[in-house]
Design brief:
elongated, 204 residues, Ankyrin_rpt, hydrolase, Ankyrin_rpt-contain_sf, alpha+beta, PLPL9, 2 domains, Serine Threonine Protein Phosphatase 5, Tetratricopeptide repeat, calcium-independent phospholipase A2 activity
Amino acid sequence: MAFFGKLFRTIIGGEEQSGNTVCEVGISKFARVHVVSREDCLVLYGPTDTNQYELLLQQPVQNSLSKAYSLFRMADQDDAQIRFVALREVIPLLVRHIPHEIINQQGLQTVCDLVRDHQTWTVAHIAAYLGYATLFFQADVVRQANMADIEMKETPLHLAIQKGHIEVIRVLMEKNVTIDSVDVKGNSVFHVAATSSEAIIKVN
């Protein structure tokens, strides 16, 4: 019950998280640390020698097999597992499809921050927000293209228009995504487009 209580508080943004800076770490120090959870390239360890739970992306860092990226460090196991669950829905897919854009400190930091700040976004929302048009040719992303997030009711198309990502908009329109959805403020994609550039308005 405590876990689900923390899940609810985290979803509504009631608890501040710590240790969110993505950084390089040596893998060897985790050799004797317990694995709490594992999903694809993500491994949650803990407690470490500093009594924290740490999530590693186990991909070579600058061609070095002895290093990995640490995505977060948390003192509370339940909080760490909640964040792990959120990131496992996004990071492995991005690593698989756009590794060069993602497997670096800046790319991972951007995605981790988005997942933390927008907890009901799908990977399609993140792809639209960041302008990764090629991801919408992947079946596991396209199937989320019409989903509105729970908090703001925005679809990936809403976000692509807001950010001015014309190629993403074009691809989404070619995929025949819905254009009837409205966000919590009652804005359709047409309302959002009307406040954007002429180039976006002209996208068919």
